[in-house]
Design a protein that fits this description.
globular, single chain, mainly alpha, 0% strand
């Protein structure tokens, strides 16, 4: 899902549920004076699907789990 589509399709309530238990400083107001949900977890492609599509190009050596995100 692209950033614009995320902002059109996602709801603040749905994103709050997805972020439950994650230390988070809140959502910022975007260019259109609305809450910017483009960095919500639901906006990203499923990593398993992406890696499956790339399996003939890469050799997976390890899987990392993010511990934090900083957007500046």
């Amino acid at each position: 899902m692209g950033r614009n589509e995320a902002n059109r399709r996602l709801t603040l309530e749905g994103v709050r549920i997805a972020m439950k238990g994650i230390v988070f400083d809140g959502w910022r107001i975007g260019k259109r004076k609305r809450i910017d949900l483009s960095e919500a977890p639901q906006a990203y492609k499923n990593i398993e699907t992406v890696m499956e599509a790339q399996k003939d190009l890469v050799e997976i050596q390890t899987r990392l789990t993010p511990l934090g995100v900083l957007k500046g």
